[in-house]
Amino acid sequence: MLLGRVVGRLWAARQAPSLGGRKLLLVRPETASGGETTRLLVAVDGLDAGPGDRVIVAHGSRVRDLTVGADVADKDVIIGIVDGHHLEAGT
Amino acid sequence: MILGRVIGEVWATRRDARLQRSKLLVVRPHALYEPAFGGLGGRHLVATDDVHAGVGDVVIVCLGAPARWSVGGNDTPVDAAVLGVVDHLDFEAARMSAPGAGPGISRPLSVALPGGAAR
Predict the structure, then answer these.
(1) Which of A44, B66, B85, B114 has the fewest CB atoms within 10 Å, i.e. is most exposed?
(2) Which chain A residues in 20-39 lie under 8 Å from chain B, judged by CB atoms?
(3) Domain B2-88, what architecture?
(4) Is the CATH number of domain A2-81 2.60.120.340?
(5) B18 interfaces chain A, CB cutoff of 8 Å
(6) What percent of chain A is helix, strand and coil (3-state, nearest 5)?
(7) What pLDDT, in 10s, does the model give residues B41-70?
(8) What ipTM does this complex have?
(9) How far off is chain A from B48, nearest CA to CA, in Å?
(10) Which of B110, B65, B58, B55 is nearest to A85 (CA)?
């Protein structure tokens, strides 16, 4: 899993049935201490997260099957919304 | 499996119900493995923990399906789990850290061990 920040939501009027009208969020992976990275991924929301939330994103087809369903064409799924963290000093 | 160091812990009240009992640790992959995770941006990963690892521990992290088995079957939506805490590591630093010794290795490495010793 990785930590990221929800930076936006995606809407698509024309989309494949395999996206099934699922809520898609833009997530920017973060460093452990919350620093921004230049990467961006599109994750399916399993938990009703929203822009600004810090989230835990899991990857893989099995994770996808277990959370949002085997018929969804996205293997990045939000499985947790972070309340807080404790980090070793200097990280 | 990869080797890493626990650098923190995260709390998430809202999370998948099947994860409610698991502690979530932030692990920085050891330099040997870092390139693979650097590409994702964050140079860390979040792993469930069932062996009571703590911040500062060097740990063995399992990725993929075996990680799910460790947290109670294949029905938990996780992709990484801490499976062991390393007590001792013999490591041929000079040989392993030579440029070209492995994918992405281009600089000298050091392994920080519990107790502060470095090899």
Answers:
(1) B66
(2) 28-32, 37-39
(3) Beta Barrel (2.40)
(4) no
(5) yes
(6) 10, 40, 45
(7) 568 899 999 899 999 999 999 998 888 888
(8) 0.86
(9) 9
(10) B55
User: How far, CA to CA in Å, does A73 sit from each of A9, A32, A77, B65?
Assistant: 17, 28, 11, 19
C-alpha count within 13 angstroms, C-beta hemisphere, residue B30 = 24
* CB contact (8 A) between residue B41 and residue A29: yes
Name the pTM for this structure.
Answer: 0.82
What is the total residue count of chain B? 119
| B46 contacts A3? CB cut-off 8 A | yes
What is the separation of C-alpha B13 from the centre of its chain, rounded to a whole number of angstroms?
A: 23
Strands B58-63, A41-45: pairing kind: unpaired
Sorted by where each begins, the domain ranges of chain B are 2-88
